[in-house]
Protein backbone atom coordinates (compact mmCIF):
# COMPACT_ATOMS: atom_id res chain seq x y z
CA UNK A 1 0.00 0.00 0.00
CA UNK A 2 2.83 2.41 0.86
CA UNK A 3 4.53 1.78 -2.44
CA UNK A 4 1.50 3.18 -4.27
CA UNK A 5 1.48 6.29 -2.08
CA UNK A 6 5.20 6.95 -2.50
CA UNK A 7 4.64 8.68 -5.84
CA UNK A 8 2.02 10.93 -4.28
CA UNK A 9 4.37 11.75 -1.42
CA UNK A 10 7.16 12.59 -3.87
CA UNK A 11 4.78 14.92 -5.69
CA UNK A 12 4.52 17.04 -2.53
CA UNK A 13 8.21 17.90 -2.87
CA UNK A 14 9.54 20.62 -5.14
CA UNK A 15 11.11 19.36 -8.39
CA UNK A 16 14.57 20.08 -6.98
CA UNK A 17 13.87 18.27 -3.71
CA UNK A 18 12.41 15.31 -5.58
CA UNK A 19 15.46 15.13 -7.85
CA UNK A 20 17.84 15.15 -4.89
CA UNK A 21 15.88 12.43 -3.08
CA UNK A 22 15.74 10.23 -6.16
CA UNK A 23 19.43 10.68 -6.96
CA UNK A 24 20.44 9.87 -3.40
CA UNK A 25 17.97 7.22 -2.28
CA UNK A 26 17.15 5.38 -5.50
CA UNK A 27 20.25 5.98 -7.61
CA UNK A 28 22.78 5.86 -4.76
CA UNK A 29 24.77 8.98 -5.64
CA UNK A 30 26.82 10.67 -2.92
CA UNK A 31 26.20 14.24 -1.77
CA UNK A 32 29.37 15.29 -3.59
CA UNK A 33 28.21 13.69 -6.86
CA UNK A 34 24.75 15.24 -6.61
CA UNK A 35 26.24 18.66 -5.81
CA UNK A 36 28.42 18.40 -8.90
CA UNK A 37 25.54 17.28 -11.12
CA UNK A 38 23.22 20.04 -9.91
CA UNK A 39 25.97 22.65 -9.66
CA UNK A 40 25.21 23.60 -6.05
CA UNK A 41 27.20 23.45 -2.81
CA UNK A 42 27.39 20.08 -1.13
CA UNK A 43 26.01 21.55 2.11
CA UNK A 44 22.94 22.81 0.23
CA UNK A 45 22.32 19.35 -1.22
CA UNK A 46 22.73 17.79 2.21
CA UNK A 47 20.29 20.19 3.88
CA UNK A 48 17.73 19.88 1.07
CA UNK A 49 17.93 16.08 1.28
CA UNK A 50 17.54 16.15 5.05
CA UNK A 51 14.50 18.46 4.89
CA UNK A 52 12.94 16.43 2.07
CA UNK A 53 13.35 13.13 3.89
CA UNK A 54 11.85 14.70 7.01
CA UNK A 55 8.80 15.77 4.95
CA UNK A 56 8.43 12.25 3.60
CA UNK A 57 8.82 10.73 7.08
CA UNK A 58 6.11 13.01 8.46
CA UNK A 59 3.77 11.95 5.66
CA UNK A 60 4.47 8.31 6.40
CA UNK A 61 3.81 8.85 10.11
CA UNK A 62 0.58 10.70 9.29
CA UNK A 63 -0.49 7.81 7.07
CA UNK A 64 0.35 5.29 9.79
CA UNK A 65 -1.82 7.23 12.25
CA UNK A 66 -4.75 7.31 9.84
CA UNK A 67 -4.36 3.58 9.12
CA UNK A 68 -4.27 2.76 12.84
CA UNK A 69 -7.43 4.81 13.44
CA UNK A 70 -9.42 2.71 10.97
What does this structure look like?
The chain starts with a helix and ends with a helix. 83% of the residues lie in helices and 0% in strands. The protein contains 4 helices and no strands. By secondary structure, it is mainly α. It is elongated, with a radius of gyration of 14 Å. Helix 2 crosses helix 4 and helix 3 crosses helix 4 (42-69). The longest helix is centred in the C-terminal third of the chain and has 28 residues, at 42-69.
Please provide a brief summary of the model.
This protein is mainly α and 70 residues long. It has helices at residues 2-11, 15-26, 31-38, 42-69.
Taking all residues together, what is the mean pLDDT?
87
Can you summarize the main beta sheet? none
Q: Level of helix content?
A: over 70%
Distance between the termini: 15 Å
Determine the number of helices (DSSP H or I, runs of at least 4 residues). Answer: 4
Number of strands: 0
Strand content: under 5%
Shape: elongated
Radius of gyration: 14 Å
**Helix and strand string, N-terminal first?**
HHHH
* Class based on secondary structure composition and strand pairing: mainly alpha
Low-confidence stretches: none
Which descriptors would you attach to this protein?
mainly alpha, 4 helices
How are the elements arranged and paired?
Layout: H1 2-11, H2 15-26, H3 31-38, H4 42-69
